User: Fold these one by one.
Assistant:
Number 1:
Amino acid sequence: MKFTLDCSLIFTKPLKGIDLKSLIKESAVILERGAPEGKGARIDRVKLKDNRLDLRITSGRYVRPHDAVFRLKNLLSEELGKRYRIGIRGIKAEKYRIEFDVEKEPKEDIALPFAKKIRFDGKRCILELHNLDEEFLGKNYTDRMINLINEKIEKQHYEGKEEHWELIWQSKQKEPVWNKDPSEEMEKRNWIMHRGRGQWIFGPTATKIIKTMEQIVVDELLKPLNVNEVIIPKAVTWDVWKKSGHAKNLYGEIYYLCPPKSRDPRLWEEVTDIYKITGEVPTDLVKERIKEPIGGMCYAQCPPFWPYLAGKTISDEDLPMKIFDRSGTSMRYESGGIHGIERVDEFHRIEFVWIGYPDQVKKLNKEIVEYYRKIFNKILDLEWRMAFVTPWFMAQEGLIGLADVKKEVGTIDFEAYLPYKGPRKESEWLEFQNASNNGDKYPKGFNVKSRGKEQLYSGCTGIGLERWLSAFIAQKGIDPENWPKEFRKRVGKLPKEIRFL
Ligand code: ATP
Ligand code: ZN
Ligand code: MG
């Protein structure tokens, strides 16, 4: 690594008749502090003009110039303040050149905000930044940019493969009752009705089935494990997603949340007038009258729960802590991927979250999988499988090694065979839920502590009710006569189908 920073210190007064040379010589010691001998930062060039001191600071890996310049600033402001009552007004940097080796060669050009130039020579990267202010230098933006370049290259090498997928278990093959598209068939019978983009109304019959499924989750998973119900907000603000990590990558899938600039009717008069005259909502004018997004609609249920625990210490008696939420929908902008009720923009999900010491979390993950096994084999009688998946960013952050044979931290996807999509081997199965051991990600992100020495872990499982319904109808058909006995017993008599004339 090679860093070259051309920067200036701006003083409150011109430095006339002051022996700067010896002061700068003195600073050599502090620019080495913490580095192996001879490997700290160096001042290569000094030029004084009135109240401005231009410097070139260089370094290798240790004491990078953006740190060194603050060490120098502290030293000089102390000495000059004491001796001459001169202070330092600020730091500016005209140019910062950073040369470093990346882990892999990039496949395409990389662009980054703040970067004037990013050039590669094999694995050697030359990054050039211009006109930087004190905040930029002081807040470690440079190190984050270096990390981000490596992250972008890593992503190029993943080539659109969003996750690493590995089968861990598969049920017996089950003879499907039919091979029809469940959404289409339910739509024909008015069980469900499409409403705009990726949103559905569930009529009485479909609702009865979904509610029965929900009850199965309560009776066969949540009650046996003593999980308490909570109500979690569904409008999520940036502070939550910054701590949960979602602020790093969620933007293309969010339904944004924008409050009005004011509730004053005068602000809205033109909008209401136009609507009353034309019968159309003037959305362009609405857009002018709303604030920037303060966040978005619930994407995953657990992040907006964590502020409940943030900064707190949980007593050992309350661990593992187990809660679940089913208090509202999640929303995702799924764009082109929408299909029937299998991929929707507004969906219903139960999420169960557990928090504890690593062993407790691991044990619960295992127990949860066993309860699910019973539900899918004995009650819904599904053909399904489990796969261990590693999202690329987790692998890349080193959160999970792909070769981690223990597979303790990471996600299990539960997938169901959809006969209407074709043969088992070639067709895409439906992920109808997942169960994750999220490691220390959330307790760390939200600063949740325990009395014990070990770092807390957490896990969560998201049960997608639209997906359960799809998987079930896709395999078992629409006629209750063909449904497994255990499910029929629980669902009871279905409401009479609604017919429209
Ligand atoms: P997919 O790969 O199908 O997009 P995902 O990996 O984005 O799913 P997760 O973020 O793991 O899904 O969400 C957990 C669960 O939430 C899923 O297993 C599924 O049951 C449900 N879910 C997620 N997105 C949707 C959607 N668009 N429509 C219906 N259910 C969904
Ligand atoms: Zn979760
Ligand atoms: Mg998705």
Number 2:
Amino acid sequence: MKNIVLLGAPGAGKGTQAALIANEYNIPHISTGDIFRKNIKEGTELGKLAKSYIDAGQLVPDSLVIDLVADRLRQDDAKNGYILDGFPRTIAQAEALDKVADISVVIDIELPFETIIERLGGRLVCMCGETSHVSLLGDSKTCPKCGAEMYVREDDKPETVRARLEIYERQTAPLVEYYGKKGNMVTVDATVGTIEKVFEQVKKVLE
Ligand code: AP5
Ligand code: MG
């Protein structure tokens, strides 16, 4: 059983790698960002509460995230492991997670901010969950997985990306030290190249 946490700045490639890990090891990909975006789309109470924070590039308050994840981890499909993408993001969230879960490994995906800005500048996402990039799709915006039209995420505007990176530095980067001290964290250098090359590094960590 592997309970995996993926750490990393916005746009470092967490979602891309988490989807590959979930597929390879047949464990659920739990992304708090995806959960919020689904709730926003469906107009739920949680979606309404989260929307203003997400659109501004701020973190949703811990009180709205922690119970949500604890509930999700109790579901049946998470019994044989899971991959957490985008949680925890604050020390308070990490401490709360320690109370309800036994984390096998934390993978910290590292990428310089300049590269992140390029990647988020061209990211396209699909309602089906697929993520891609204009450099991969050319002029087409058609989702390679389901054929729907892909779109730019609301919080990928340049000024919002800057806000997200600042928040990452202030609130999430301290987790690198937090998990570093615990001794279960491995760093993956995402400058090695393609999505496949990064995934090879990730698999080495997991095997
Ligand atoms: P969330 O959805 O988690 O966003 P994020 O952390 O900002 O990360 P991203 O999804 O933007 O990037 P990623 O690392 O997944 O990169 P990706 O794989 O897409 O959170 C959104 C918001 O929700 C937060 O700002 C916050 O408001 C709220 N929230 C979520 N969780 C929360 C929590 N725990 N507490 C409080 N608030 C929370 O890749 C990016 C691009 O690069 C893509 O175009 C991709 O195709 C491309 N790419 C990936 N890998 C490569 C590669 N190796 N080579 C070339 N291109 C690549
Ligand atoms: Mg993501």
Number 3:
Amino acid sequence: MAAVGVALLACACGETPQTAWNPRSEYAAEGLDLFVLIIWMGVIIGVIVEAVLIWAAIHYRRRPGDRLPPQIHGNTIIEIMWTTGPVIVVGYILFVTLPVIFKTQAPAPPASMNVEVIGHQFWWEFQYPDANVVTSNELHLPVGRTANLILHSDDVIHSFWIPALGGKRDAFPGHTNFIWMTPNSTGEFPGQCYQLCGYSHGNMRERAIIQSPADFQSWLTAQQAPAAQPTDPVGVEGGQLLQTRGCAACHTINGTPAQGKVGPNLTHVGSRGTIAGSIFDNNAQNLRTWLKDPPAAKPGSLMPNLGLNDHELDVLVAYLQSLK
Ligand code: CUA
């Protein structure tokens, strides 16, 4: 069993970054500690029960010449033992679990950094209200500071889950939910929507990017600036096309007439590592594939196929990539 546990932990650190076995916040660590404790309790009880069962089956097996054993009904001592035993075990689980539930469901500490997390079909929006920054799919947080994620949904029920940071929690339309934790190490940690929310539920991913406080602050400052507009002819043409080709009705690019609120804010889309609900790396080829036919790349995508021709795709990709 220990070998299986070690093997599981070994996988957790290697090929499967989206794991709850590698906690990077106190909230994730508390959840994992409880899980491991309960698993070991189950293993120990299971081994004891199986051992008694096997021993009894062998020791009291039927032998030639055996007569019918005494027929009894009920044994008060055994009845009391197998009633109180499980009550004690479950009572202990309750005793260690309840404080964690109350602690993690309580309002966040007052000095926390608020981030509004809004679920959309099929991407996550992150708003930093104190900094007036809006981004999507990549949640930047500073290490060592408690983050209070205020969860909403713009359409159906989604569930926010980054395993390294802690347990999942639903994002509802018309109701506010919270989840808070303090990231304890820097790095990128993937997650995904955990509530069936439509056609591309499985394509609704996100990642947490935990940075040093200085790196986080410089990221935030860069995000606050309006979009730097390109001056080269291709980029300029792409920028004009974005305003005239319908994109601006759904997307905001701060500092330009594009102020749509349906899709992700693209002010600094060129600075993001991923696009389209974090399912593709952000590079020219993927951006082109995505713009060419969004519902083909992400089934159920609300972003329509605009029927862009090759030249339009080229200049739009160049423009979007310039929005650092
Ligand atoms: Cu959003 Cu599943």
